[in-house]
Every structure is written in structure tokens, then in C-alpha cells.
Amino acid sequence: MKFLVVDDSATMRRIIMYSLQRIGYADCVEASDGEEALDKFDASIGFVITDWNMPKMSGLEFVRILRTRPGGTLPVLMVTTRSVREDIVTAIEAGVNNYVVKPFTLQVLKDKIDAILVGSGPGCLNAHDIHARQDA
Known about the structure:
This protein is of the alpha/beta class. It has a single domain (2-135), classed as Response regulator (Rossmann fold, 3-Layer(aba) Sandwich). 44% of the residues lie in helices and 18% in strands. A 5-stranded parallel beta sheet has the order 2-1-3-4-5, sandwiched between helices. Strand 1, helix 1 (10-22) and strand 2 form a beta-alpha-beta unit. The N and C termini lie far apart (38 Å).
């Protein structure tokens, strides 16, 4: 499966791509912001990992546009420093399948990817679940 890794930090892109290689995903394309990611997105991409805060086009804007395109139903994992519950809800409502807060471990990244690919379990979030947790 080919991954599209989107982050304005070249170092972070390298960390994510190295982590992906360690868990068995060597086929990656990288982009430095949402605009470049949209340009590089094609039918060969099977999974997107994106940051939120980027110049030109944020990860959130990128995901919203991606979801309107043909093939835009693929899995999306947001990896970001934004950890406020409202931000997580906003990302999930925009179409993100799951969310990882930086810094993260290899195991956390693997678990989130696996959960998204399986399509169930604690790794798959929806806005209703986040609101229910907040109300509890």
C-alpha cells in the first residue's frame, strides 16, 4: 500500500516514513503542505498521514478537499501537536479516521494504522464517540 505523508517539517516526514518502513510500509510519497499533497494525490495512494498546521493549506483543509475527490474515501490519519478535544472533534468531522498527537511511538503509529485498516476498535474514532467521552 502506498502512503502519502504530508508535513511541512522535512524531519517529521522522514521520521514518519522511517517508522512506516519499520512496520512494513516502504512505498511512500511525501508532500510539504496540503496544496502539494493534492497535486501528488492519485489512484495509487492507499493511505494518507497528514499534519494539521502547515503553510499554504492546512491538513484540515486538505482532508476536507480530499474527501470531495474521486478516490477520496481512503484512510486518513492526522499526526499533529494539537491535542485539545475540540480540535480532535473538528478533525474527525472533517473526515479524518484517527488522530495521533506528536510526539508518538512506533507502536502507537502502528496501532492507529492497524485500527483504521481493520475499521473498528479503539483506534477508529467518530465525532459522536468523542462527544460521548466528553459528556461522561
